[in-house]
Amino acid sequence: EPEVTQTPSHQVTQMGQEVILRCVPISNHLYFYWYRQILGQKVEFLVSFYNNEISEKSEIFDDQFSVERPDGSNFTLKIRSTKLEDSAMYFCASSGLSGLPVSNQPQHFGDGTRLSIL
Amino acid sequence: EDKVVQSPLSLVVHEGDTVTLNCSYEVTNFRSLLWYKQEKKAPTFLFMLTSSGIEKKSGRLSSILDKKELFSILNITATQTGDSAIYLCARDFGNEKLTFGTGTRLTIIP
């Protein structure tokens, strides 16, 4: 069964450094998302991406964050200058098979990248 | 407020028991309600509910949505230790974002 893959599984970074989290969404999916889950808290939406642009973003997704689809398969989340409070599990998700009604297609999640800021 | 509330927060039962997990929400304009199972890492998709009153089933799991009363339930019959996980409920506004509840931590004792 196709799946969303994320790398690395764990990233440890010094505060103030830039990090790039990588995701390969399910092939032929059209919508891509990033979520985060701080330890012990809810999964929170960060950003959605469709047709090579951001379609919606949350208040969390400030100027420190950016997303990119640099080629036909990868989808990245960059945090420019990390803070301690950025420590969390970051999940990538994708949905929306081409040719099918998007409203009836669930989001599928990767295993996440655990980001630890020191 | 855009809120999804799940109950109970935690549940411990014996193998073979039946459990019912609850999810309620406050805003009516959404496309679907989804259930996910989160074991160690990725939330794994279980059900997507778009219509009120229509039960969805997958093996020992079933779920139903009540749009009038703004809630959904997830039932698991004849529970097994492999059902131990956090069960997440989320609302979908239509491929823009999912709003998740805090989850119910289910523990099955052998």
Task: Give a quick rundown of the structure.
The complex is a heterodimer of chains A (118) and B (110). With 118 residues, chain A is mostly beta strands.
Question: What does it look like?
Answer:
- The complex is a heterodimer of chains A (118) and B (110).
- Chain A is mainly beta and 118 residues long.
- Chain A has a single domain (5-98, 109-117), classed as Immunoglobulins (Immunoglobulin-like), CATH 2.60.40.10.
- Chain A has no helices and eleven strands.
- Chain A has strands at residues 5-7, 10-13, 19-24, 29-37, 43-50, 53-57, 65-68, 75-79, 88-97, 108-109, 113-117.
- In chain A, the strands form two sheets. In chain A, strands 2, 4, 5, 6, 9, 10 and 11 form a seven-stranded mixed sheet that branches. Chain A has a four-stranded antiparallel sheet with strand order 1-3-8-7, with no helix packed on it.
- Chain A starts with a strand and ends with a strand.
- With 110 residues, chain B is mainly β.
- In chain B, the strands form two sheets. In chain B, strands 2, 4, 5, 9, 10 and 11 form a six-stranded mixed sheet that branches. In chain B, strands 1-3-8-7-6 form a five-stranded antiparallel sheet, with no helix packed on it.
- Chain B has one domain (4-109): Immunoglobulins (Immunoglobulin-like), CATH 2.60.40.
- Chain B is globular, with a radius of gyration of 13 Å.
- In chain B, a hairpin with a 4-residue loop joins strand 7 (61-66) and strand 8 (71-76).
- Helix content of chain B is 0%, strand content 56%.
- The A-B interface holds A 4, 31, 33, 35, 41-45, 48, 50, 55-56, 58, 89, 91, 95-96, 102-112 and B 31-32, 34, 36, 41-45, 48, 50, 88, 90, 92, 94-103.
